[in-house]
Amino acid sequence: MMNRLQIETCNLLIDEYSSEIIKRMKGFTGDNRPDLCNQANGGGKKQFNDVMQAANSACCVEEFKLYISYKGVKQGTKEYWGEISDSLNTQVDKLRDLAKEVIKQAHDRQVELPEDDVHLEVVKRYMGYLMWQVNVLMGEGGKNTQQKSNYKKK
Fold it and tell me: What's the predicted TM-score (pTM) here?
């Protein structure tokens, strides 16, 4: 568990990598993922909000990855999450290199950061951006577009 100085340093340094994290997230959600928000198959805003909550409550990256794998076999979400759980877990693994960069920069500032904790913080940031992106995509053509337009009329 990180102390206050470690947490502050970690968050500050992760902020510096926000553009790279967003770039990676958009690579995952890009044009090749029109299925990402398919509510009929178990996708959509609520599902991604649940995943974000799981990331925030996970005590380690492996626990979060286990949750993603579970969604891939769970009845009711298997069709959708079964297709993306492996690729999402691969993206999570690839975020470790960013965590190592954060650790290196913290070391240069005489702050030692535990790799697993930093990796989890990077994953949380990634998942937060992913949740926002799904919400944007849903607003651009999902079921929620009609709800938004009705809301504006009132």
Answer: 0.83
